[in-house]
Amino acid sequence: MRRVPVLLPYPFPEPFDYAVPGGLDPAPGDAVLVPLNRRETVGVVWDAMPDAVPAARVVPDAKLKPIMALLDTPPMTGTMRRFVDWVAAYTLSPPGEVMAMALRITAPAPLAAGWALADPPEAGVRMTPARSRVLAELAEAEPRAGTELARAAEVSQAVLHGMAQAGLIRRVPLAHASPFVRPDPEHPGPVLSVAQGEAAAALRDAVAAQSFSVTLLDGVTGSGKTAVVAMAGAVRGAVRHGAGGVALRPVVAHAADDVAGRGRSCGAGGCRRALGAVPAVPQPRAAGGG
User: Fold this and answer.
1) Is domain 113-173 given the CATH code 2.40.10 in the classification?
2) Which residues pair with 69 in a beta bridge?
């Protein structure tokens, strides 16, 4: 039986082994849905541990729980997985908690359903002005969410269900919306002082050089080093060149204000989530075996 280590977004010291059922071929970095105690959770297939696990700690094949599904999401790259392990070792933190900050999903999002045009209806299907408005709205754009479609056509949900029973429209899955709004690097952002502007320009030039460098920002607390200069400089420069940026801060006392400031700096409402918020992960009551 094939088994793979799966790192879970909880404070466990190491990944859990899960059995690979037939039909699945998970690779390191793949996001998977696995059972944990009495619920389901999202994890990432991790790399094999470099040191051999003592035989006493190896879970027998018969007790392994199987992976439930592979999630349709980009895999976590090997560079990111090594970075997670390095941060966990450097900060003496559980690797799962570090990985949770890099995991874009912590639970499988339910697939919403909408309405689309069905095959041409059979002769004799009763048409009303309300039904005609619904068909006209779907002819312009489909699929449409039920609430949106009903509002645009000025009908009730009962009309939509009646049309579905008559074979005029059909239920279809809706594509998930992007969780983040793309930041705009040309957004003016906050007004910087002369010194802040010079520091931000130096950071943007360092990013544009696309070579390794270290920059020290010297300033008193509250001078805008992180929320203003770093975001207007390094991260803005990275986004402008089609890359990304990570802003790390050790103090979270003013996290809400800092996140709002970052959103204003990058000019996107979704940027506040992308750059400042980490999805909350429910803590398990007890560490169940994989």
Assistant:
1) no
2) 33
